[in-house]
Amino acid sequence: MAINKVYPDAKSALADVVTDGMLMLSGGFGLCGIPQVLIEAIRETGVKDLTVVSNNAGIDDAGLGLLLQTRQIKKMISSYVGENATFAKQFLAGELEIEFNPQGTLAERIRAGGAGIPAFFTKTGVGTQIAEGKEVREFDGAKYVMERGIFGDLAIIHAWKADTEGNLVYRKTARNFNPMMATAAKMVVAQVEHLVQPGEIDPDHIITPGIFVNRIVHVPNVAKRIEQRTTTPRVAA
């Protein structure tokens, strides 16, 4: 019996999976490849006390910045948050927790969680605040700090194309953290720009196999914001 993974909208795809206090992974890098439609739907649920794993916290009026505005996020596990004034204000006021990770360490923590690896050792962060309170062990004359893998309750991701069985294809840099997060949660919901039938995607082009994806939302006209627009002035003819 085939399982229907395609939901009519983000609200219905998330209605019975979001809960207060859950650990949620959110794909994207800056505003590239973020699951914007799913984030907006999560805001509408009113869920609160979220711990969110994401490379960054979006900007004030887009991405995870929307959930910060409504104070639905209790803690961020991130690499970089410098583009979000709301984040800075809440953090400095003691209203938001932050667990900073070197970017490569964050990526490996997610990958490890998806691979069933509970912890690993890395040189990155040894001798710094990153290593405080963590086990440090010596291997071959060098010190390494232990980092825990991350496995969440929910992962929300963005893909360029999917078939109805959940096989995903990402496009260029919008791939970023999305494939790793698709393996590292109990429930994975993907918003996709193009939805096709099984067999219409070349198997060699599939990046995330459908076995990892629980639900799909088709968002053919999703808006794509530019985080930092830089242009060159036209030269007068």
Main features:
single chain, 237 residues, alpha/beta, Glutaconate Coenzyme A-transferase, nine-stranded mixed beta sheet, three-stranded antiparallel beta sheet, 19% helix, 27% strand
Describe this structure in words.
This protein is of the alpha/beta class and 237 residues long. It contains six helices and twelve strands. The strands form two sheets. Strands 1, 2, 3, 4, 5, 9, 10, 11 and 12 form a nine-stranded mixed sheet that branches. Strands 6-8-7 form a three-stranded antiparallel sheet. The relative contact order is 0.18.
Task: Give the SSE map.
Elements: E1 6-7, H1 10-14, E2 23-26, H2 36-45, E3 50-53, H3 65-69, E4 73-78, H4 85-92, E5 97-100, H5 103-114, E6 119-122, E7 136-139, E8 142-148, E9 152-163, E10 168-169, H6 178-181, E11 185-196, E12 215-218
Please give a quick description of this structure.
The chain is an alpha/beta fold.
Give the end-to-end Cα distance, rounded to a whole number of Å: 66 Å
Q: C-alpha Rg, in Å?
A: 19 Å
Biggest sheet layout: 9 strands, mixed
What is the CATH superfamily label?
A: Glutaconate Coenzyme A-transferase
Structural class by secondary-structure content: alpha/beta
Query: What is the architecture at the second tier of CATH?
Result: 3-Layer(aba) Sandwich
Specify the CATH class: Alpha Beta
Report helical residue fraction.
10-25%
Secondary-structure element order, as H and E?
EHEHEHEHEHEEEEEHEE
What share of residues are in beta strands? Answer: 25-35%
The whole-number mean of residue pLDDT values reads 94
Tally of individual domains = 1
Q: How many beta-strand runs? A: 12
